[in-house]
Design brief:
Distance between the termini: 55 Å
Number of domains: 2
CATH superfamily of the largest domain: Spore Coat Polysaccharide Biosynthesis Protein SpsA, Chain A
Number of strands: 13
Structural class: alpha/beta
CATH topology of the largest domain: Spore Coat Polysaccharide Biosynthesis Protein SpsA, Chain A
Radius of gyration: 19 Å
CATH class of the largest domain: Alpha Beta
Shape: globular
CATH architecture of the largest domain: Alpha-Beta Complex
Order of helices and strands: EHEHEHEEHEEEEEEEEHHH
Oligomer: single chain
Helix content: 40-55%
Strand order of the largest sheet: 3-2-1-4-9-6-12
Length: 247
């Protein structure tokens, strides 16, 4: 059986990290790169046997590459602190590594929003490339929404990776602020700019796309809230991009 390294980046994830680590405790190695947490994240990780390294925060892509550089296994599985591997997904991951028919594998991700698993609005199956051979994959250096850059063949798995991304309204508001700020900064660094109309027009379109075109309405009240969240994130992203360009 090839050896597997699980890599995780963290910052103040004490509420999530224990369940995450327990879901991948079967791996040969767990590497955690922490961005100077002020809660008990690091202590919990060490308690559960993870190799922990502390760094500053340069953005998602760079931080995940740091974790990748510490890993030693033949295969890498990248997981976020608010995600969980089910027993069914574990069996499928192990079979994928054993058979080695591809160099990387996409997992369908099933996300929860304030207590409800979401299957519409573009949220499911939400394939994410998480399992790959260490020598053929690396993360993009993006500040946010990083991707795995693969030099090899990929395939899709069937069992979902569970994602507990938004537990409370406070999580929703925090991530709207976090992701819109990071996305605006990234766009600004690429030389992009925004007009006065971009924020309201693109925000409105994000709502229509999520709620109507991607059938978010089928998820009931949660679908409505997600559409509003996407609209707010998009609006703030372009508003902040305009402010950065004007500064």
């Amino acid at each position: 059986m090839p050896e597997l390294s699980v890599i995780i980046i963290t910052k103040n994830e004490a509420a999530n990290i224990r369940d995450c680590l327990m879901s991948v405790a079967w791996a040969n190695e767990i590497v955690v790169v922490d961005a100077r947490s002020t809660d008990e994240t690091v202590e919990i990780c060490k308690e559960l046997g993870a190799h922990v390294y502390v760094h500053d925060w340069p953005g998602f892509g760079v931080q995940k590459n740091r974790a990748l550089d510490y890993a030693t296994g033949d295969w890498i599985f990248s997981i976020d602190a608010d995600e969980r591997v089910t027993p069914e997904l574990r069996a499928e991951l192990e079979e994928a590594m054993r058979a080695s028919k591809a160099d990387g594998y996409y997992c369908p991700r099933l996300s929860q929003f304030c207590g409800h698993f979401i299957r519409h609005g573009g949220w499911y199956p939400d394939y994410v490339l998480r399992l790959f051979k260490r020598r053929v994959g690396r993360f993009s250096d993006s500040l946010v929404h990083e991707t795995v850059l693969m030099n090899g063949a990929t395939a899709k798995l069937n069992h979902p990776l569970l994602h507990y991304s938004y537990l409370t309204q406070a999580d929703v508001e925090r991530k709207i602020d976090q992701y819109s700020a990071a996305a605006a900064k990234q766009m600004h660094q690429k030389g992009k700019c925004a007009t006065a109309l971009d924020a309201p027009v693109r925000g409105f379109w994000a709502f229509i796309r999520t709620y109507l075109l991607r059938a978010g309405f089928l998820d009931g009240r949660s679908g409505w809230r997600i559409a509003r969240m996407n609209a707010a994130t998009t609006y703030l992203k372009y508003q902040r991009l305009r402010e950065l360009h004007s500064a």
